[in-house]
Each structure stands twice: as C-alpha cells, then as structure tokens.
Amino acid sequence: MTGQNVTQVLHVLDKMLSCIAAAPVDERKAAAWRRRLKSGQPAIDETEFPVTDAAYFLIGIARHEQGRDLTQDAAEQLILHYLAEQAAGALWQENGIAAKLGEAWSHLACQTALARAAETVAKNIPLADWQHRECPVCGTLPAFASLEGEGGQRSLVCGSCFTHWRFKRIGCAFCGEEQPEQLRVLTAEEFPGWSAAVCLTCHGYIKTADLRQMAVRPGWQQAALTTLPLDYAAVRWLDNFRSQRATS
Ligand SMILES: [Zn+2]
Ligand SMILES: [Zn+2]
C-alpha cells in the first residue's frame, strides 16, 4: 500500500471514529483493569481484543476503498486470521480483495480498534503510577517517546494502541542503560523536532518527538509511517556501529 493510500485509509477510519459513540464502561471490567495494573500487568489481556470493532473498521475500509461489502462474519474471520498471523489468502480472494491489500487494511483496522479501546481504559483507570517499559494498557513495547513541558519530561507511546505514559527522562527505554557514552541521539534535518535515541548496550532505539519544538502534537498512527526514514537511519547507524566494533 502506498503512503497516499494509507493516508486515505486513515482518513476513512477517522471519519468512522467520529460517527460512533464512545463505548460504555462496565464498572466490573474497570475494576479488573485496575487489579491487573496494580499487579504489574497490562490492563487488558488478549481475550479483550476488540475484534468486533476491528471488523467494523475493516468493513468500512473495504466498502470505501473498493466498493466491496464484507459481511460481519467474514470481517471477523479475517481479523482473527490476522491476529493469529495465519494466512488468509483464500478468504480474501473469496471476497474479491487482494490478500496483501487486505492484510494492510487489517493492520490499520486492528490498530484503530485497539487505540479506541485503550482510550476508554486510560479515561477510566489512572496510569500515573505505571513505571514499566511495556504499555500499561496492552503490554506492547513503546514505539515512540515524547518530550514536553519544562525540563522535557518524557512519556513513552505504545506502538500498538498509542497509549502514552510517563517514563524516567534519562536512560534507554528498553534496557535502562544510563551511561552517557552508551547513548546517542540521531537527528535528521527532514524531521524537525524528531530524533532517534539509540542505545549501544542493547542496540535498541526509540523515535522521540520533542513536542516543545512542534506546533501540533503528531498523530501517532500516521507518524509510524511518515517517520520510517528515521527507523532506517537508526538501523543503519547501529549496523555500522556493530561492524566497526567487530573489525576493531
Ligand atoms: Zn498499548
Ligand atoms: Zn538499551
């Protein structure tokens, strides 16, 4: 899927989101989220993945992008296959959609549904005490960090549901390394305000948006795609670093 197609699909999803009411919150469920969080586990578990919502978004995309009407049943099957990382070529074919395109749609539909569920969780339970590197809502590792306010307080942003949570300012977000000589910050002129914080200890990196230098807060779902050149740069830099070390 090209960048333009993705933008178009994100636009469809945005419109769909603005047309649906916020999901009602079940108090018992919220209590269970709080309990899990308190014991150091992400609030929602796999069984709570919003499959029905993801199917709803998938149906909307297929209709808008290719005039195809997926049934709820077919859409749920496709989403479940996607989540289980099972190939669903025949199923897509039956519905007149190229599997590769369908997979990309499923990815965006699942992301949007999970982000919506996560918003509900974050609105209903406090995440302020969470200090782990994994997402407090879904347990995924962060894809982004953001800096804001005086002193540039850092938050991490989940790569799956885009929940953000406070995290200590100094050190690698993955392994905790704090030695300055092990940490590097890569910037690129094409991405003002963005950097990649690279760790030479675990060879991880995290794309960081300095919100103090940005007029508007980035849309994370879109940023995941538009900042891909920063990923390439960080990976290339780490590869070079490794090969230099191997030969020295
Ligand atoms: Zn998450
Ligand atoms: Zn590290």
Q: Could you walk me through the main structural features you see in this protein, from its secondary elements to its overall organization?
A:
This protein is α+β, with helices and mostly antiparallel strands. The chain folds into 2 domains: 3-124, no CATH class; 142-247, FdhE-like domain (FdhE-like fold). Helices cover 47% and strands 13% of the residues. It is built from 8 helices and 6 strands, in the order ααααααββββββαα. It has helices at residues 3-19, 27-38, 51-66, 72-83, 89-94, 99-124, 220-226, 228-247; strands spanning 142-148, 153-158, 164-166, 183-187, 194-199, 205-210. Strands 3-2-1-6-5-4 form a 6-stranded mixed sheet, with helices on one face. α1 packs across α3 and α3 (51-66) crosses α4 (72-83). The chain starts with a helix and ends with a helix. The model has no long low-confidence stretch (mean pLDDT 93).
How are the elements arranged and paired?
Layout: H1 3-19, H2 27-38, H3 51-66, H4 72-83, H5 89-94, H6 99-124, E1 142-148, E2 153-158, E3 164-166, E4 183-187, E5 194-199, E6 205-210, H7 220-226, H8 228-247
Parallel strand pairs: 1-6
Antiparallel strand pairs: 1-2, 2-3, 4-5, 5-6
Helix pairs in contact: 1-3, 3-4, 3-6, 4-6
The site of one zinc ion has 9 residues, from loops.
**Oligomeric state, counting identical vs distinct chains:** single chain
Which bin fits the share of residues in helices? 40-55%
Run of helices and strands: HHHHHHEEEEEEHH
Number of domains: 2
Structural class: alpha+beta
Report the portion of residues in β strands.
Answer: 5-15%
Radius of gyration: 20 Å
- The total strand number stands at 6
